[in-house]
Design a protein that fits this description.
By secondary structure, the protein is α/β, with parallel strands linked by helices. The chain folds into 2 domains: 3-172, P-loop containing nucleotide triphosphate hydrolases (Rossmann fold, 3-Layer(aba) Sandwich); 216-335, Up-down Bundle (Zinc Finger, Delta Prime, domain 3). Helices cover 53% and strands 9% of the residues. It has 15 helices and 7 strands. It has helices at 10-22, 39-51, 65-71, 97-108, 129-140, 160-163, 176-185, 194-203, 208-213, 216-231, 238-251, 254-272, 286-292, 298-316, 321-335; strands at residues 28-32, 78-81, 84-85, 93-94, 117-122, 146-152, 167-170. A 5-stranded parallel β-sheet has the order 2-5-6-1-7, with helices on both faces. It is elongated. The site of zinc ion has 9 residues, from helix 3.
């Protein structure tokens, strides 16, 4: 399938198709950027374009035996390595040295069918230190006709010596229109109303998996509760405010709720700065957010945001949830 079918990522597409066109494909690339924006998909399309029987001006044909085998994970010259868990109960997935050694063995042979051997290492930051050291040798002296593509959303967790040997290609969050069309045709979005898709697009930060995973009903409930809360900030309503703290402490997803709260406060600050509804994260709530800006100074809203940041921080250090939330609301009342 040609690069054109990958939505967004114009800059990455440009870099890759230029390299193919000019015959200047590097030995190793690092694809980095947010999760779920098309990095792995682009790496596989690159592998297809390099080995395609009838490549066009815009990447692979998508229908020749080579392209089909890569799509099915059965091409003898194209390898995809991903982190795996040591056992079903293990907490973290990793790429281990045995897997790197196995890959190096396969890369050592000349290509069976294709023109290029391609290894895509997804979640490259999950290589453990031994795996990294072993892989470094391949990066330093790559076998001929070999392309290595390291894919990561956490490049800062990788060894600088690995990064410095790769050509970096940066990926960006998907623009709303690209994300919307991906969601509209995605099997998981069957039966979704337009408003729901729109809400997911708005809240996804340009990431497909995030847009699909969002629990829209839960978010809607949190937002309702938080709007009510922000509307009642007063020392005279401490009973209501403390009741909310108690309920959240008893079983709410505190981090998620605070994230929503920050989003709403951020929107209040944006409205106070004179921006229109199109600048809001919670665009669908514009008419309900506007009245909440009344009687609050911008400094007050910023002070409240600051209180949320601090609360999140101390909760990460295992502070008591109910006390921390109560303290945060006291600071809100003081600011409001
Ligand atoms: Zn093809």
């Amino acid at each position: 399938m040609p690069f054109e079918t990958i939505l967004g990522q114009g800059q990455a597409k440009h870099i890759i198709s230029r390299a193919i066109e000019n015959g200047t494909v590097a030995h190793a690339y690092l694809y980095y950027g947010p999760e779920s924006v098309g990095k792995k998909r682009m790496a596989m399309e690159f592998a297809k374009a390099l080995n395609c029987a009838q490549p066009g001006t815009d990447g692979a044909c998508g229908v020749c035996p080579s392209c089909l085998k890569i799509d099915q994970g059965q091409h003898p010259d194209v390898f995809l390595l991903e982190p795996t868990k040591a056992s079903s109960t293990a907490r973290d997935a990793a790429i281990k040295i045995e897997e790197i050694r196995e890959l190096q063995k396969k890369l050592g042979y000349t290509p069976y069918e294709g023109r290029y051997k391609v290894a895509v290492i997804d979640g490259a930051e999950k290589m453990n230190p031994q795996a990294c050291n072993a892989f470094l040798k391949t990066l330093e002296e790559p076998p001929g006709s070999t392309l290595l593509i390291l894919v990561t959303s956490n490049p800062y967790q990788m060894l600088p010596t690995l990064i410095s040997r790769c050509q970096g290609v940066m990926f960006h969050p998907l623009p709303p229109e690209a994300l919307r069309s991906i969601l509209e045709t995605h099997p998981d979005s069957e039966g979704m109303l337009d408003e729901e898709i729109e809400l997911r697009v708005l809240r996804s930060q340009g990431q497909v998996a995030r847009a699909l995973a969002e629990d829209v009903a839960e978010i809607a409930r949190y937002r309702e509760e938080l709007l009510a809360l922000i509307g009642q900030l007063s020392f005279r309503r401490m009973d209501v405010l403390f009741q909310w703290s108690r309920e959240v402490a008893r079983g709410g997803d505190t981090q998620k709720i605070l994230e929503e709260l920050l989003g709403l406060l951020r929107d209040l600050a944006v409205l106070q700065a004179g921006c229109g509804a199109e600048a809001l994260n919670n665009r669908d709530l514009a008419s309900r957010l506007a009245p909440l800006t009344q009687g609050k100074s911008r400094a007050a809203v910023l002070h409240m945001m600051d209180a949320v940041f601090r609360t999140r921080h101390i909760l990460n250090m295992n502070a008591n949830v109910q006390l921390s939330l109560e303290n945060m609301l006291l600071q809100f009342c003081e600011a409001a």
